Automatic annotation (TrEMBL):
Domain GGDEF: 174-307
Name by which UniProt lists this protein: diguanylate cyclase
Reactions listed under catalytic activity: 2 GTP = 3',3'-c-di-GMP + 2 diphosphate
Keywords: Membrane, Transmembrane, Transmembrane helix
Broad enzyme group: transferase
Phylogenetic classification of the source organism: Bacteria, Pseudomonadati, Pseudomonadota, Gammaproteobacteria, Moraxellales
Coiled-coil portions: none
Positions of transmembrane segments: 12-31, 43-62, 69-86, 106-124
EC number(s) from the headed UniProt entry: 2.7.7.65
GO BP annotation list: cell adhesion involved in single-species biofilm formation; negative regulation of bacterial-type flagellum-dependent cell motility
Keyword Membrane: yes
Length: 307
């Protein structure tokens, strides 16, 4: 509700006052048109656009925080609404030709609204450029909120598959690698510290991974406690070096529990492969098999070491 406090009520108060004022003026100085003289094409066209502008205002007011972009877009849509409302009233009420203020009500708000809306879109364009830079390692050329992970600030597995398939098709001659990271003992973290803490751990790891990959790389949450990283145009030896570095960064990080400030040790199992399969589905299948094999080899080595 705090997000709605600044522009929400002011906007609807202004629209309500304008509607009451203009309707009152039209009723006082004009005469209703007979039903037979109603132009339904104009009524549906102008009235429908007026309704859609209201819908746009509601969506923007409920989805955007206060700021310069929001203000200009809202002001622009409000003035456009003022123009459309007066234009719609003109379809139902006939004013005497001696009255000229109705032309001002219909004509003046529209260019003001278009100018404000254009400024808002211009500043929104600058805002989107800044946001795109911020999300550079979390999305590649395509943005679809339906493919965002609900828990972490990353995209999900479906988004990763789309991007990987796109790279395989467009750049088949280049070397591409994929890294899979699987959190160790994550179930124990949930058991001892709670699911909320487990969610915070996943968010923390996602931030760590984002900070430690190249600008053109892509990190996504694959599923559960697994993260997958796409390294376009990267040879295998460099990818394996990054795999080791990322594992070390996570294991050496100091993550503390939110509830009691106790350090929670973090570690990952990992796998890295060169993309040689025709589809993303096949790549992920091979990647999972490689991870499973690495885990088994590590377990066998641990047993031999103990013996």
């Amino acid at each position: 509700m705090e997000r709605l406090s600044t522009h929400y009520y002011v906007t609807w108060v202004a629209i309500t006052v304008w509607c009451i004022l203009t309707t009152t003026l039209f009723v006082i100085y004009g005469t209703p048109k007979p039903f037979a003289h109603w132009n339904w094409v104009d009524i549906l066209g102008e009235g429908g656009v007026t309704i859609f502008v209201c819908i746009w205002l509601i969506l923007i007011l409920k989805s955007r925080p206060d700021g310069r972009v929001t203000a200009y877009i809202i002001y622009g849509l409000c003035f456009i609404f003022f123009h459309l409302w007066a234009d719609t009233l003109d379809e139902f009420i006939r004013l005497p030709k001696s009255i000229s203020w109705n032309n001002w009500l219909e004509s003046v708000p529209f260019p003001i609204g278009i100018a404000c809306l254009t400024l808002g879109i211009y500043y929104w364009h600058q805002e989107q450029i800044a946001i795109s830079k911020h999300l550079l390692k979390r999305e590649r050329h395509v943005r679809d909120h339906r493919l965002f992970d609900a828990l972490t600030p990353l995209a999900d597995a479906n988004y990763f598959k789309i991007q990987l398939d796109d790279i395989i098709q467009k750049f088949p001659q280049q070397e591409h690698c994929v890294i899979l990271l699987d959190m160790k003992q994550f179930a124990q973290i949930n058991q001892h510290h709670g699911f909320k803490e487990g969610s915070l751990v996943l968010q923390y790891v996602s931030q760590v991974l984002t900070l430690n990959i190249k600008p053109n790389d892509l990190v996504c949450r694959l599923a559960g406690d697994r993260f997958v990283i796409l390294l376009p145009n990267t040879p295998l030896y460099r990818a394996e070096h990054m795999q080791y570095q990322l594992s070390q960064v996570i294991e050496l990080s100091h993550y503390y529990s939110e509830s009691n400030s106790v350090r929670i040790p973090l570690a990952v199992s990992s796998a890295c492969i060169l993309v040689q399969q025709p589809t993303a589905k096949d790549v992920l299948k091979t990647l999972n098999q490689t991870l499973h094999r690495n885990k088994n080899n590590l377990a066998k080595a641990h047993v031999i070491y103990e013996l």
